[in-house]
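Action item from last meeting closed. Structure (103 res):
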């Protein structure tokens, strides 16, 4: 039984890694996804920035480059903003690891 289902299951799984034909809420083509927002959260680039620019959560949106999804840079993401004033501030390097093990 498994042999008869294997090829169709593989095809469905492979199609899931691609970009579905969906439109964003503004009717633009959705080419950005955010798996942390949800499994079916797709945005146009403009709406992705609006949705994530003030987020306190470290989401990692990805944009479709025609072949696969790659990291999508959200300008002004909250960890680049100063959310408080402190007279003892000093810059330092910090290494962050994503919950999925990505740097």
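Sequence:
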């Amino acid at each position: 039984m498994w042999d008869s289902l294997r090829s169709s299951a593989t095809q469905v799984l492979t199609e899931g890694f691609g970009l579905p034909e969906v439109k964003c809420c503004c009717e633009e083509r959705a080419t950005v996804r955010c798996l942390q927002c949800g499994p079916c959260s797709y945005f146009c680039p403009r709406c992705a920035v609006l949705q994530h620019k003030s987020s306190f959560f470290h989401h990692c949106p990805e944009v479709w480059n025609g072949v696969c999804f790659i990291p999508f840079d959200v300008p002004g993401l909250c960890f680049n903003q100063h959310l408080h004033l402190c007279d003892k501030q000093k810059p330092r390097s910090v290494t962050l690891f994503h919950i999925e093990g990505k740097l």
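Note appended to the action item: The helical segments are 2-15, 45-52.
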